[in-house]
Write a structure and sequence with these properties.
6-stranded antiparallel β-sheet, 270 residues, alpha+beta, 7 helices, single chain, 3-stranded antiparallel β-sheet
Amino acid sequence: MAFSNIIEHAPWPFPLMFRRSSAVRELQMPRMLTKSTDALMPPVTVELADYEVVISRLKTQEASLDCEILKQMSEPRNGVVSGTLFVLLTLRYLCAGEQKILSSINNDLASAKVPWIKEARCISPPSWMADIKTYITRFSPQGVEGTILSSLVGWHLCILLEKECVHGKKQSNRTVKFEVVLASAFVLRGHDLCLALRVGIRSDDKDFLSHHFTEIDEPSGADNIRVAALLEQSVSFADNAVHIAEMRSCAAKEFSLAEFFRRMIKDVTL
């Protein structure tokens, strides 16, 4: 049975379920982002910039992202939501959240320099990730923003579903309830920012997990989660515009990545 035909039991948006301890334990960097290519990576220049300068740069990038998001949303695609649109929204929430946290933790009396990668035109990913964690804790973003940003910390609940299954030792027909969860990561790859999304199926029914959504060979870091889809895209900012290139995209036969993206962002407004 295809993902789009599975019965959905919970309305969107779901309340934010941020659990730091379990998320940190479960999260692993996607294998596609950890392949040993460091020897081929060109050097980068790190500028220690004033926080107000970085906020100004992020505002410019957010405006570019908004333009591209509106363009993507206005183009007819027969109801199909692309992974590029989802990545653009992720970056938009990252830029907006970073601006808010920088304004919150800095002032004219006391402020810290922000490591800025000149070639990639972005904040150093480790610093950016630390700031986003602080942003989540301090401001508790909700809805789509909260889900997307919390997925950068660990597996995060997106959708509750159920599916009929006959596999297992007893070979009995049963209804299995499971969760569709999301985990994201971003790193610097050369002079581009690389964003990877993993969509997982979480269930305590091991027989169900061992017979469904099995095509993707990617570790999840948790015994009760099977990775059902992957998306990796590179991002660069140049000439007041954002450029995205898809590097990898795949999904299990029973899972529709396009339908997942559609459900995730169907209520998004800028």
